[in-house]
Design brief:
The complex is a heterotrimer of chains A (about 375), B (about 290) and C (about 180). Chain A has six helices and 19 strands. Chain A is an alpha+beta fold. Chain A has three domains: about 110 residues, Roll (Nuclear Transport Factor 2, Chain: A), CATH 3.10.450.100; about 100 residues, Immunoglobulin-like, CATH 2.60.40; about 90 residues, Sandwich (Immunoglobulin-like), CATH 2.60.40.3230. Chain A has a four-stranded antiparallel beta sheet. In chain A, strands 8, 9, 10 and 12 form a four-stranded antiparallel beta sheet that branches. In chain A, strand 6 and strand 7 form a beta hairpin. Chain A is globular. By secondary structure, chain B is mainly β. Helices cover about 5% and strands about 55% of the residues of chain B. In chain B, the strands form six sheets. In chain B, strands 2-8-7-4-5 form a five-stranded mixed beta sheet, with no helix packed on it. Chain B has a five-stranded mixed beta sheet with strand order 10-16-15-12-13, with no helix packed on it. Chain C is of the alpha/beta class. In chain C, strands 2, 3, 4, 5, 6, 7 and 8 form a seven-stranded mixed beta sheet that branches. The chains are: A alpha+beta (about 375), B mainly beta (about 290), C alpha/beta (about 180). Chains B and C meet through strand 4, strand 5, strand 7, strand 8 and strand 11 of B and helix 2, strand 5, strand 6, strand 7 and strand 8 of C.
Chain lengths: ~375, ~290, ~180
């Protein structure tokens, strides 16, 4: 009896642990990490990336292309304070494109969650058989090599000094003069969207927000929303930004008119960095979706850690018919081109005549 | 006996006026703010005196039949004052107006603080005239405005107030720079400075210098139609369209000009814009 | 409905010169207690130099009515915290001082607001100041403790300066003026 009781306890504990492991998806996870098939190899790699198991992830790769561990981690986890460094792999989808006995090509759609929303990344991965297991061939990242150089930074900078006087009737400085240049309300399948452009007409930088209020036929307010990050908030003098205000769940038939409101604040700003948007053109991505793609080049000497692309699309009459935005997971190193792509809805693509891209950027303060 | 009765009758006769007289207050109909005032009272005995004004309330014991002195400090705000006196028999009240004193200070607002040159009715100046207690002066007074542009002769305007407000509108001058606006009422004066800035770009032109694999673009000095240079930091957009697609760069004006560089391979068309103003176009290597 | 048929109502617009704007539960001619929103009728026929937009007029009228509602309640309850929503500057300072004095002396003022006929006469071109002339029908009772020491029922004229804040208009100056002022 004295020996039976401990044995029973040990067996019960083992059974409970096994049940817990199985209930947590242990078998599925083990299957994912087994790499017995090409798809399993890719899923196992994604699971390791999701769990930040860099050692396991790197060990499961095919190393014949001499990919370095540091390069692999830098590409997956991000560097230079980029948006990727603040992101986590939320989910992924894998499907085969081509398969034979020793080599397969699979497409993986990775969904990264970040502070600014979800970011989608599409990759085609080559997977080869290595004995009884499959290994993913991870393409060697091509990090830009910026030669050592001195880049003078002498663009204008604005500072706001002093504090606003509480004394009414005393001298003061007006908020920046901004103007809504255009407004167009369109209906999408699940929402009404208000689009347009806004200009900083002043000679000082402005930090602005655009709000829109939908009015019912009786003049009462139906809904009020702001542009959130579908706008370039900080505009230098004479700079123009697109904006987009979304009203989920609203139909255009409910709306009689739209009241626009733009609020601008005086803020310090710098005219640096200058970021060019090059080689923009309409293309299709790997999934056949229409995109506007191009390359961003940071022409200054300071890294832009997080960049956002805002694209505005016009019809043949010059009317704004769509505004879309996207964040880059990669930082913009000086002089190093970084590709971007922004989705275009099919119905917009059929009508669009021209487009314009504006780049927003965030530079992390240096410690 | 008769003498006693007579004395008692005399006493009653003397006391009768005091016993029967109701409380009364006789303030002046109007008084200037900050001026002391005396309010005549009628009645006998002591009473509780109240004075309620726009920014003040006073309560004290007074002797009826004597004047109640109100210091000027209790009458600083203009408006309607209620004087009340109460004793055991009841209360009496009277109202009087305290009027603003003579002009002593003013609030001066000028908008906007930055204005494009050559814009009609772009500048407006408003002066609100008060006495030394911040009461709005209702009597018409005269506000003198003096405008001193950075370039050109100063000029003056004189505007009468209506219920304490004097205002004027005027256009900006043709040259950029500070415009000092001085407003004066009597011996008091205040100054505000408006920055007149260049308006929209005019005649925007760029030139291109081609290299083996790139083209360098530079605008001529960017000015408005009056010849005022646009300030540094104003964004100029360059756009190139070639076989590789469209390329754009928003670059700020630096030392009066904006410049950019594009790589080119094959024919290209390059345009320039500043805000909503389009400049010239340059074609390289034929039409793209 | 297509996008083309939508009308845009920008924040700044131009309206007819004569607007009558009515606030609150105003259609009854009977007097209302201070707790309800007082009736304010505003005429902007004479306003200059800047015409008043429909929405601005409605907002100013509403703010003025609410200011009077707060004024009445604060003077009756001797609470200065009620003045923060629609009063600012000189008007707020003066009322606060009056309430402070009342509180120390045990006095209260009870208003019965019978309505305001307001005429907007000045609106600065930049929209920063608006002057109103108010002809108010107000019944006022002064109380020392619970004892009414004075009651008056009269038409009183006020000169008002309104200035815009972040999300509303404020009464910056509220001055009683003689009958012959306007």
């Amino acid at each position: 009896m004295r020996r039976v009781l401990p044995l029973v306890i040990v067996l019960a504990t083992a059974a409970l642990v096994a049940a817990g492991w199985s209930g947590a998806g242990g078998f599925a996870l083990r299957a994912e990490r087994s790499a017995a098939t090409a798809e399993q190899a890719v899923r196992a790699l994604m699971a390791d990336i999701q769990a930040h198991n860099w050692d396991d992830a790197y060990a499961s790769l095919d190393h014949r292309n001499d990919i370095q561990k540091s390069d692999f981690i830098a590409e997956i986890a991000g560097t230079d304070g980029s948006l990727r460094t603040y992101s986590n792999l939320q989910s992924f989808d894998v499907w085969p494109l081509h398969a034979d006995e020793s080599h397969s090509t699979l497409r993986v759609r990775m969904n990264w969650s970040s502070a600014v929303g979800s970011l989608e990344e599409l990759r085609d991965l080559s997977v080869i058989r290595d004995g009884n297991i499959w290994r993913v061939v991870w393409a060697k990242p091509n990090f830009p090599v910026v030669p050592l150089q001195v880049v003078p930074v002498n663009y204008l900078r604005w500072d706001v000094i002093g504090r606003r006087s509480d004394d009414w009737g005393g001298g003061s400085v007006d908020s920046p003069q901004v103007r809504i240049m255009s407004m167009n309300a369109v209906e999408r399948p699940d929402r009404v969207v208000v689009l347009g452009e806004v200009e900083n007409e002043d000679t000082v930088p402005a930090y602005l927000n655009v709000n829109a209020t939908l009015l019912k036929p009786d003049g009462a307010s139906l809904d009020e929303q702001g542009s959130f990050d579908a706008i370039s908030h900080r505009l230098l003098p004479k700079q123009i930004s697109p904006y987009r205000v979304d009203f989920p769940g609203v139909r255009l038939s409910q709306v009689k008119s739209v009241r626009m409101d733009v609020r601008a604040l005086l803020v310090p700003a710098s005219a640096d960095p200058v970021i060019s948007v090059e080689n923009q053109n309409i293309a299709k991505d790997a999934l056949g979706r229409k995109i506007l793609k191009g390359v961003l080049v940071n022409q200054s000497g300071q890294t832009a850690n997080i960049a956002q692309v805002l694209a505005v699309f016009y019809d043949s009459g010059g009317k704004v018919i769509w505004v879309n935005d996207g964040y880059l997971g990669q930082a913009l190193l000086p002089q190093a081109p970084v590709p971007f792509a922004v989705d275009i809805p099919d119905d917009v693509a059929a009508r669009l005549q021209s487009y314009h891209v504006v780049v927003n950027h965030y530079i992390a303060p240096t410690v | 006996m008769n003498a006693l009765l007579t004395a008692r009758l005399l006493l009653v006769l003397i006391a009768l006026p005091a016993i029967g007289q109701p409380i009364g207050l006789r303030p002046p109909s109007a008084v200037a703010a900050g001026s002391p005032v005396s309010i005549a009272t009628s009645g006998a005995g002591t009473a509780t005196f109240y004075l309620l004004g726009p920014s003040h309330a006073v309560k004290r014991t007074v002797q009826l039949g004597q004047e109640v002195s109100i210091p000027g400090s209790d009458l600083s705000s203009s408006g309607l004052y209620q004087a009340i006196a109460c004793d055991s028999s009841g209360c009496a009240s009277a109202a009087f107006q305290v009027l603003p004193a003579s002009p002593a200070r003013f609030s001066f607002l000028v908008h906007p603080s930055r204005v494009p040159v050559n814009t009609a009715n772009a500048i407006n100046a408003t002066a609100l005239v008060f006495d030394r207690f911040e009461n709005t002066v209702l009597e018409p007074s005269s506000v003198a405005f003096r405008f001193s542009p950075g370039v050109g002769e100063p000029f003056n305007r004189r505007v009468p107030t209506e219920l304490g407000i004097a205002w004027l509108q005027m256009g900006s001058t043709s040259k950029q720079g500070p415009l000092r606006v001085l407003a004066s009422v009597g011996e008091n004066a205040e100054t505000r400075v408006i920055q007149q800035v260049a308006s929209e770009a005019c005649g925007l032109r760029m030139q291109a210098t081609s290299g083996p694999r790139n083209v360098r673009l530079q605008t001529e000095p960017v000015r408005d139609c009056g010849g005022n240079p646009l300030p540094d930091g104003t964004v100029v957009s360059f756009t190139k369209i070639d076989g590789a697609g469209r390329s754009t760069v928003d670059t700020p004006i630096k030392k009066g000009v904006a410049s950019a560089q594009f790589s080119v391979s094959g024919p290209a068309r390059i345009s320039v814009a500043c805000g909503v103003v389009l400049g010239n176009e340059i074609s390289l290597g034929g039409q793209p | 409905m297509t996008a083309a048929s939508l009308r845009v109502t920008p924040v700044v617009g131009v309206l007819t010169a004569c607007i009558t704007l009515i606030s609150g539960f105003e259609f009854s001619s009977s007097p209302v207690r201070a707790a309800s929103l007082p009736k304010v009728t505003m005429n902007a026929e004479s306003i200059r130099p800047r015409p008043i937009e429909q929405r601005t007029g409605e907002t100013v009228t509403q703010a003025y009515a609410r200011a009077w509602q707060d004024l009445a309640e604060s003077l009756e309850t001797n609470r200065t915290d009620l003045l923060g929503d629609y009063f600012t500057g000189k008007a707020k300072n003066r009322l606060s001082q009056r309430i402070s004095d009342q509180q120390k002396l045990g006095l209260r003022t009870r208003y019965v607001d019978r309505g305001h006929q307001v005429k907007a006469v000045f609106y600065s071109p930049d929209g920063g100041e608006m002057q109103l002339q108010d002809q108010a029908q107000v019944e006022m009772q002064i109380l020392d403790g619970d004892k009414a020491i004075s009651t008056s029922n009269s038409t009183q004229k006020y000169l008002v300066l309104m200035t815009p804040g972040a999300d509303r208009w404020y009464v910056r100056s509220l001055e009683e003026v003689p009958d012959n002022a306007f």
